Amino acid sequence: MRVPVKWLRDYVAVAPDATAEEILADLVKVGFEEEDIHTFGVTGPVVVGQVLEFVPEPQSNGKTINWCQVDVGEAEPRGIVCGAHNFVVGDKVVVSLPGAMLPGPFPIAARKTYGHVSDGMIASARELGMGEEHDGILRLASLGLDPAPGEDAIALLGLDDFAVEINVTPDRGYAFSMRGVAREYSHSTGATFHDPALSPELEPILAAPATGFAVTIDDTAPVRDRVGASVFVTRVVRGVDASRPTPPWMISRLGLAGIRSISLIVDITNYVMWELGQPIHGYDLDKLTGGITVRRALPGETLVTLDDQTRKLHPEDLLIADDSGAIGLAGVMGGAATEIGDTTTNVLIEAAGFDPTTIARSARRHKLPSEASKRFERGVDPKVAPAAAARVVQLLLELAGGELDELGSSLDNSVAPRPIFLPDGYVAALIGVGYTTDEVVSSLAEIGTTVDAADGGHVVTPPTWRPDLTDKATLAEEVARIIGYDRIPSVLPVAPPGRGLTRSQLLRRSVASALAASGLTEVLAYPFLSTKASDRFGSPVAGGVPAIRLANPLDSEAAVMRTSLLPGLLDISRRNLSRGLTDLAVYEIGAVFLPVAGETYGSGPLPFGAARPSDEVLAQLNAGIPPQPRHIAAVFIGDTITKQPGQLAVASGIADALAVVSEVAFVLAVPVRVATGSHQAMHPGRTAEIWVGDRSVGFAGELLPALADELDLPRVVGVVELDLDALIELATPEVTPTPIVSMPAATQDLSLVVGVGVAAGDVLAAVREGAGDLLEHIVLVDDYRGQGVADDAKSLTFALRFRAPDRTLTADEATAAKLAGLALAAGRFGATLRE
Fold it and tell me: What is the pTM of this model?
């Protein structure tokens, strides 16, 4: 909502020196959001000039310019080059002198052009920011003005005004008017407010008879129990001169409000709508056939609206019709058949009140938002219609001539606002501020409510312009708003004792923190996938069951719920790679959706209404949701370590994926086992399956190179995905710290020859088991295949560290433990000591 400040001052006492920022700050206090500040962007000197003479001069480019002598109130006329031809000698025009600034910004200076020094510029309406029309220069006579040369044109045309723009929330439709904003500014500052709907100048018009024009509300079978129209006021003015110009003060105010000047009569209706918040429609009375009927559209009915579009109407659309048929889409846009034009002499004015839901549906159905529909769908004061119609009559009589006719009508079936009981102490208890009874009553009275004392509280009747006040909670909000939000203390809530994060929440946070500390970046991907991506990356624990398909997907190409986090992470990686980020390590912790074979999901009716569903209904809803375990997944592309002095680049891959497994296992204190595995989207020779005991909890490795190429990713992509909920379930409840032993360690190496198909991890486990408690640490340091080893065998070298807690081990003791490990490996896998 744009609020021209000179206009605002007509209804509320805004300080003469108030800046736009100060006015916005005052409106913010009563709950509006500041948006912008608008000006015409014109600074002086811009003056009135009178054309004394001009000489047309044809140019070599085919254009003819006029060399003009213009009186600007100085001792000598100024010579100005002008390319327009819509003026004559003696015309009063607007001259921008050197030093002026026009919208753009466009600075004006004396400059040599077409063989002359042009000492200024004769401006058009568009160049002055007064509209988009550009039929030549602005002739002041066309605005009904005859000022003296040299007079300040900025003040004359109202270009010295500015507007503040605020964001109006949907529940405060009354603020889509100067009347509403002025009232709110008064609430904020205490400035005196004058309601334009109660102007004494309107009383004679309101008192004048208005009868005889037939208006029928034919909505006996209302749509969804909503009667389409409750208020309908009409007045007639005859003998108007539609060709008269709109006065500059009205053009400037409408322009700052964001409304283009069209014609005098249309501008007046727009002006009153902005002033009082009541949309107004004007009809050419001579084009009407009979009276007006407000009804729903008939099957197959069409209407040509003012934008010359033929619209196929819906049976729910509310229409304005006469004996010839539909002549307007009620509350949205009028029809072309009764449009006001330059030849209009008799005008029928309509000020009506329509059902907000009906208007909102029609505006959206026809993709036809308008300033009128914006107000109707938020609620218009049903009692302002007579005043709005009278205000239009007043301006028509004043600016367009003519005289008020007795023909008209007044229908009002609006429902009075429902009284609300407000218990004593309710506002203070809800807001948390010790408001006194006097403060509550006075603040509610200030916004226009009627407050009557009652047993245990007060009965509050909202004003007609506040349909948003529906219960005691909304009244409490108004008290807090009017008295001031600064009265509400900032108090941090105290968590009830004995509560906090659950064990699962703590462990999930610990895992996320550990990975972030390791250099990975946490991301969030969309949970919706294409069927192809879902089938390709389906989690092994899904058991081959098809993914859950959405009934109403946002994107038809992504219509299934994810069973794996990897597709989303790979898509994020590809997007970042395309933007030049070649080294990435990203991870996500999120839910996947794993349906169970034979189960049906999403069935059953959804609960309706504001009441809490019963336990049976909740159980049914929960049964319709598939299991949603949380997984953790990571993707690595590019280099883990970049090339730098003394350091070669280290490419990411399976090692980084397995490092994530180790990090997660360490944080959760889970003993994981890594074994050779397989996955339909993974490299067949570089895929590991992760086990905890006899339970598979995920996989790690590198993406299938052909798939990486298909996804526009590097050939080597390290990936890992783990069932985090399963790992937390299997985690050790309490971790016993290992004491630091002060006794020295004994280190030895063990090189074993085993079959090429024997997993190194299985051999390592056998050696660890056989070596017993003296073995403190074991790690595989070499996997050799080549000369000296049979083609069907490999040599595995392990580094072993032995330590006793109570003594220094001898070499014989360490060797004996190593040989015991060798013996167990030999018994299980046929391992032999490499010579």
Answer: 0.66
Q: Is residue 26 part of a domain?
A: yes
pLDDT at 220: 65
Q: How far apart are CA 660 and CA 676, in angstroms?
A: 17
Half-sphere exposure of 291 (CA within 13 A, CB side): 17
Shared-domain flag, residues 680 and 586: yes
CATH number of the CATH domain containing 74: 2.40.50.140
Res 440: pLDDT: 95
CB-neighbour burial class of residue 762 (10 A; exposed 0-12, middle 13-18, buried 19+)? middle
What's the residue count for the chain?
835
What is the model's pLDDT at position 133? 65
Q: Considering the domain boundaries, does residue 737 fall inside one?
A: no
Same domain, 306 and 343: yes
Q: Is 759 helix (H, G, I), strand (E, B) or coil?
A: coil
Nearest to residue 272, comparing CAs of 286, 259, 285? 259
Amino acid code (one letter) for 355: D
Listed in sequence order, the DSSP H helices in 366-471 are 371-376, 385-399, 426-431, 437-446
How many C-beta atoms lie closer than 10 Å to residue 226's C-beta? 15
Phi, psi of 459, rounded to the nearest 5 degrees: -100, 120
Print the domain residue range for 770: 746-833
The rounded Cα 771 to chain-centroid distance in angstroms is: 65
Q: Assess if residue 609 is contained within a domain.
A: no
Collect contacts of 241-245 with beta carbons under 8 A, ≥24 apart: 241/345, 241/400, 241/401, 241/402, 242/340, 242/341, 242/342, 242/343, 242/344, 242/345, 242/400, 243/342, 244/144, 244/399, 244/400, 244/401, 245/142, 245/143, 245/144
Helical (H) or strand (E) element with 514: helix 503-517
pLDDT by residue (tens digit) across 156-207?
999 999 999 999 988 899 999 999 999 999 999 999 999 999 999 999 999 9
Please name the amino acid found at residue 672.
V
Neighbouring-strand partners of residue 703: 682
Q: Residue 592: which of 526, 658, 640, 508 has the closest Cα?
A: 526
Looking at residue 701, the DSSP 8-state letter turns out to be E
Query: Same domain for 365 and 424?
Result: no
Domains in the chain, number: 6
CATH at residue 483: 3.30.56.10
Residues 388 and 403 in one domain: yes
Q: Are residues 326 and 303 in contact, defined by beta-carbon separation less than 8 angstroms?
A: yes
The proportion of the chain whose per-residue pLDDT surpasses 70, expressed as a percent, equals 97
Identify the pLDDT of residue 821.
Answer: 95
Q: Are residues 180 and 218 in the same domain?
A: no
Which pLDDT tens digit goes with each residue over 220-246?
656 656 688 999 999 999 999 999 999
pLDDT over 90 percentage in the chain: 76
User: Is residue 273, in this structure, part of any structural domain at all?
Assistant: yes
Confidence of residue 689 (pLDDT cuts 50, 70, 90): very high
Looking at the fold, whether 380 and 447 belong to one and the same domain comes out as no
CA–CA gap between residue 269 and residue 313 (Å, rounded): 26
Least confident of 255-264, 443-452, 497-506, 552-561: 497-506
Full 3-state SS string of 361-385: HHHHHCCCCCHHHHHHCCCCCCCCH
Q: In this structure, are residues 508 and 728 in contact, taking their beta carbons and an 8 Å threshold?
A: yes
